[in-house]
From TrEMBL:
It is a single-pass membrane protein. The gene is tomm70a. Pfam families: TPR_1 (PF00515), TPR_8 (PF13181). Belongs to the Tom70 family. One of its GO terms (molecular function) is protein transmembrane transporter activity. This is Mitochondrial import receptor subunit TOM70. GO terms for cellular component: mitochondrial outer membrane. The chain crosses the membrane at residues 21-39. SUPFAM superfamilies: TPR-like (SSF48452). Keywords: Acetylation, Isopeptide bond, Membrane, Methylation, Mitochondrion, Mitochondrion outer membrane, Phosphoprotein, Receptor, Repeat, TPR repeat, Transmembrane, Transmembrane helix, Ubl conjugation.
């Protein structure tokens, strides 16, 4: 859910989210807000001398050898290589005319005539015949000829890329990814076409693996810090409030501040007590008792059970409970609105933005003065790049709760991202001044410092960003995510790899269920060339994924790292490392 995840991260401005190819195949790190952006992505657009299009043509002149027009390919007074070249050139002419069968015949003749010691020429002839087979959509033949070309010349970019495209058509994604990874490294990530194919295959592989694995994964309760952070993002959430006087046994009503003792007959009240004790593993079962007994707190128990189902990543279990609460017209309106917020967030994780928007809008209709609705809908709008609408929602939240430091900080961050992506330096400065004001008025809001630090990092004000992260840590020493961001800052600011890794290791020590820490550690190990360790880190993050979409993303990282190990083994190719 949005409220429970990392702070909203900006887009790279390149059209690629942070989890795509540059992060995957070892291009230099450009770190901001914990993201790794596509290296020199924007430089590939319309750059003279850089190929961005399909590689569809054969190599060599499209015209026959001078003076040989209409003659047979074989000439008695020419060397075998010259005759092979003549056959190839004639094949190129047929190719250009769209006569692919005749072109294939000529390329086959060239392959037969070419002396075996002329390896470069021979590999070209195989690659040209593969290009003709490609036009006929004979994918196995394309793979076979490109393989011959690559055996002769292992760094033959055209042959590797053509084979990658054919392998994709044959649904051999693993080998396709290996070939296109090699191409990207050989081209120094300067060709948009190969990068797009790599991105496409990584997404498909990630989705395929996550679809099977997510259903069968172990359901793990997040860390107490994560759970408390999640609930702190709600102010109108009845189920997250401490036990009220009326919910306690008579003998405990005078013991304010002490943990309440409750009757065993109420599963929901027992679950609330476990909430206060941070004994989270017992909450779902106690809520189930309340629901099955149709007790007084059935609606509350359904909502609390659904919330913890969501926290452990069991959306299938959560949805029926949320549906029931939403449809209880006699239930407390704040319970129904809270259920709509959580279902809307769940839909967003499932990449169903229209259904998500409908739920948030319905929540705003039934509980117009619920600040949580506007706060969480504002986050949704940021994810949908609807910044102006997000700011409007944050304003409404602030109007209802002027002391909501979190909403004010997120509004300021939304304005900053809008100014930053729009290249408006004056508006950027206005947003930065806004952060100064927020951190001054709400000195105990860790989120305000964290978001300000992210903006400062974007602006390369690294020293001040470091100060903001230190203030976050002072306020929330158990927040693992802050240590990860601070570690990434050290890499960008001082290129201090050891300190960066130490801070991320500290995050894992604080919270061994922090998937963001494992993911980031894996990304850095890719950059260092430690691919086996990177794969291990990604696998740990996969086991902690909170949604199928997140798991797919992590599998993409893992697959890309594995593809690099294969490319290094087969071709001795390695991208730049830190």
């Amino acid at each position: 859910m949005m409220a429970a995840s990392k702070p909203v991260e900006p887009h790279s401005g390149s059209g690629f989210p942070r989890w795509q190819l540059a992060l995957l195949v070892g291009t230099p790190i450009v770190l901001g807000v914990g993201a790794v952006y596509l290296w020199k992505r924007n430089k590939t657009k319309n750059t003279p001398g850089k190929s961005n299009g399909e590689r569809t043509t054969p190599e060599g002149s499209a015209n026959p050898v001078q003076g040989q027009e209409g003659a047979r390919c074989e000439q008695e007074d020419m060397s075998p290589l010259d005759r092979a070249q003549g056959a190839k050139n004639k094949g190129n002419k047929y190719f250009k005319a769209g006569k692919y069968e005749q072109a294939i015949h000529c390329y086959t003749e060239a392959i037969g005539l070419c002396p075996r010691e002329n390896q470069t020429d021979l590999s070209t002839f195989y690659q040209n015949r593969a290009a003709a087979y490609e036009q006929q959509m004979k994918w196995p033949e394309v793979v076979q000829d490109c393989t011959q070309a690559v055996v002769i010349n292992p760094r033959y970019i055209k042959a590797l890329f053509r084979r990658a495209k054919a392998l994709e058509r044959l649904d051999n994604k693993k080998e396709c990814l290996e070939d296109v990874t090699a191409v990207c490294i050989l081209e120094s990530f300067q060709n948009q076409q190969s990068m797009l194919l790599a991105d496409k295959v990584l997404k498909l592989l990630g989705k395929e693996k996550a679809k099977d694995q997510y259903k069968n994964r172990d359901l793990l309760m997040p860390s107490p810090q994560f759970i408390k952070s999640y609930f702190s993002s709600f102010t109108d959430d009845i189920i997250s409030q401490p036990l009220q006087k009326g919910e306690k046994k008579d003998e405990d009503k005078d013991n304010e501040g002490e943990a309440a003792e409750v009757t065993e007959s109420s599963g929901y009240l027992k679950a609330k007590q476990y909430m206060e004790e941070e004994n989270y593993d017992k909450i779902i079962s106690e809520c189930t008792k309340e629901v099955e007994s149709e007790g007084r707190y059935t609606a509350e128990a359904l909502l609390l059970r659904a919330t913890f189902y969501l926290l452990i990543g069991n959306a299938t279990g959560a949805q029926p409970d949320l549906d029931r609460v939403i449809n209880m017209e006699d239930a407390n309106v704040k319970l129904r609105a809270n259920a709509l917020i959580k279902r809307g967030s769940m839909y967003m994780q499932q990449q169903q933005p229209m259904m998500s928007t409908q739920d948030f809008n319905m929540a705003a209709e039934i509980d117009t003065r619920n600040a949580d609705v506007y706060h969480h809908r504002g986050q949704l709008k940021i994810l949908l790049d609807q910044v102006e609408e997000a700011v409007g929602d944050f304003d409404e939240c602030i109007l209802l709760r002027p002391d909501s430091a979190l909403a004010q900080a997120q509004k300021c961050f939304a304005l900053y991202r809008q100014a930053y992506t729009g290249n408006s330096q004056s508006q950027v400065q206005t947003a930065m001044d806004g952060f100064e004001d927020i951190t001054r008025r709400f000195p105990k809001c860790a989120e305000g410092y964290a978001l300000y630090a992210q903006a400062l990092t974007d602006q390369q004000q690294f020293g001040k960003a470091d100060e903001m992260y230190n203030k976050c840590i002072d306020l929330e020493p158990d927040n693992a995510t802050t240590y990860v961001h601070k570690g990434l800052l050290q890499l960008q600011w001082k290129q201090d790899l050891d300190l960066g890794l130490d801070l991320i290791s500290k995050a894992i020590e604080i919270d061994n269920k922090c998937d963001f820490a494992y993911e980031t550690m894996g990304t850095i190990e890719v950059q260092r060339g430690n691919l086996e360790k990177a794969i291990d880190m990604f696998n740990k993050a996969i086991n902690l994924a909170k949604s199928e979409m997140e798991m797919a993303h992590l599998y993409s990282l893992c697959d890309a790292a594995y593809a690099q190990t294969e490319v290094a083994r087969k071709y001795g190719l390695k991208p730049p490392t830190l």
